[in-house]
């Protein structure tokens, strides 16, 4: 099979806009100085191209675009900083009806069928929430509430990592490591002590349904906890 397999993909980066990447967990360093006025950051990544994959049993081809757009605003509020964030994707309109051809990709279901050699389009609303962070006597704490967000579970989703910004398709491990990155209903609390971070989340333990243009009903029926350490944090 492998000696007859040829995969050809041509992708062009149309835009990498705005400020440096906005991280999914909105990890501001402890020495960040809040401003009394709103400060806004934008970030976007858009790929467009012709995806042609020739295989022994089925040939796939499609004009398509993987993309996401983010907006982040923060300002001082009391002793801390309030951050509002949103993220959308136009993939429901820029992917083929059954998804993007991608050999060996697998994971959840889409259009009533398990994903086999396809990547589904992400939801129109990939993130929408608020975060409040404060520091007192060298200890930072933060609280997050998201109508759509990512709980304290697993690594940073691939589109928020530097290694994923130039990748025109989702990594093959996307549905295993990032399965909760679009979660309808998330509450998170955390502590930051000189780079050591402890977080816990209460969230809906289900992936989004197959309707990509709406926001699923939030419910809090699962929990998670995560510990980490950021080298160089103050």
Outline the secondary-structure elements.
Layout: E1 6-18, E2 39-54, E3 60-77, E4 80-88, H1 91-94, E5 100-110, E6 113-119, E7 125-136, E8 139-148, H2 174-177, E9 186-193, E10 196-203, E11 222-229
Antiparallel strand pairs: 1-2, 2-3, 3-4, 4-7, 5-6, 7-8, 8-9, 9-10, 10-11
Q: What do you see in this structure?
A:
The model is unreliable at 1-31 (pLDDT under 50). The radius of gyration is 19 Å and the shape is elongated. With 234 residues, it is mainly beta. The protein is built from 2 helices and 11 strands; from the N terminus they run E-E-E-E-H-E-E-E-E-H-E-E-E. The chain has helices spanning 91-94, 174-177, and strands spanning 6-18, 39-54, 60-77, 80-88, 100-110, 113-119, 125-136, 139-148, 186-193, 196-203, 222-229. Strands 1-2-3-4-7-8-9-10-11 form a 9-stranded antiparallel beta sheet, with no helix packed on it. It has a two-stranded antiparallel sheet with strand order 5-6. Strand 9 and strand 10 (196-203) form a beta hairpin. It has one domain (2-229).
Which terms summarize this structure?
234 residues, mainly beta, 11 strands, elongated
Which whole number gives the mean pLDDT?
82
Please, how many helices? 2
What level of helicity do the residues show? Answer: under 10%
Main β sheet profile: 9 strands, antiparallel
Tell me the distance between the termini: 53 Å
Shape: elongated
Determine the strand fraction and express it as a percent band. Answer: over 45%
Instruction: Label the structural class.
Output: mainly beta
